[in-house]
Every structure is written in structure tokens, then in C-alpha cells.
Amino acid sequence: MPENYKILLNDYVKFYQQLDKEGKEKFEERVRLFLASVQITGANAIVEDIDRVFIAAGAIIPVYAFSDWQYVNLHEVLVYPGTFNEDFDQDGLNRSISGMVGTGAMQNVMIISKWQLRQGFINNSDKRNTAIHEFAHLIDKMDGTMDGIPEIILERQYIPRWVNIMNTTIQQMKNYGSDIDMYGATNQAEFFAVISEYFFERPDLLKSSHPELYEMLREIFKAGTQ
Ligand SMILES: [Zn+2]
After folding, report:
1. pTM of the model
2. CB 25 within 8 A of CB 67
3. What is the pLDDT of residues 29-58, one digit of tens each?
């Protein structure tokens, strides 16, 4: 791994900073393997080392506990300069999407906005990280359905409890508002992606404000180091 990748991880990636020496080496190896297996392409955007490192970090953080993990459903990440709309136009009127996991002809492709990707790591306390959001969708999608239930990593016995807490929290958000990003109340898939951002960016805050959700997410991601 290039030396400057380690410097970038050390400077910007909180999850990496908190690992011990052995853990850091493991993380670096996972980043290296990810970047060797997935193509990262700029679409009217110049992809720099910092973008490659951030995309790989967003991929590895949620599955760090699963040492043999591979994103078999991802071949390419397209990096757009800014936000885009549902037709992948970069300069239409409705330009609000900062990341997307492809379907149909775009199967196995992720699109991410370079600006949002960087903000996700540079601002590491606002409970938002677009890369982690999109990789949570990919993990969720791996069992065949993007429904907020990541059956590939969540043991069957916990599924009813997880569905229950998702539905209850979404209903509470709709009724009373929340410190959880309201986009998470869109549906179960978005809830899982949004709460994953929160969990990996502000585990301390999630633990104090939503202890039951926090415990379930620890179970889902087997996150012993959080
Ligand atoms: Zn989403």
C-alpha cells in the first residue's frame, strides 16, 4: 500500500485511528484488496488518492469484523463531481442525490458524489457519511432484496427484533421528529443505511440516545471495537 494512503487513513478516518497496530495493518490490507478488485472511475471528476482511500474506507468499516468479506455485487464505483438526479444527469434541475447503488443496466455499479464523499470523512461528527450509507445498501442488497434487513450478516434469530425496532423507530420519527436524519424514515432500506452512518460516525451518541438500536447494530455489524 502506498505510504500516502496510510497517512490519509491516519489523518481522516476515525475508525482506523482507533485501531491498534495489528488492527491498522489488517485494515490496510483490506483496503488494498478492495482497491484491487473494484474499479474506481471519475465521471467528469478527477479521482485522487484521497477519494480512493475514502471509498475503500467506507467499504471496509461496516464489514471490518467479517475478515473474508467480498463485495461480490460491486464491480465499479463512478465518482461524480457533485450531486445528481435519478437519471444520473449531473446538471438537471433535481440534483439532490449524493450516492446511489445501481439497478438494471447499472447493476454492480455504485455512484458517489466526490464532494459528499469527502465531507463524510472530513466532518466526522455530523452522523453523515455517504460512502458508509451506500455500502450499507450494498450489504443489505446482497441477500437479493434491499429491505433494511441485511440477512447476509444478521443471524436469523435477531431478524424479528430488528424489524420491530426499525418499524417502531420509523413511526416515532414520523410522529415526533428525531435526531436521526429524517431521510431514514423514507422506508426500511433507507433507515438501515442512515442508522449505519450514525452508528459508525457517532457510536457514543447513538448509545446514549438510542441504546436499544445501538445494541442491535452492534449485533448486526459484530462491532466489538466500537
Ligand atoms: Zn440510500
Report:
1. 0.94
2. no
3. 999 999 999 999 999 999 999 999 999 999
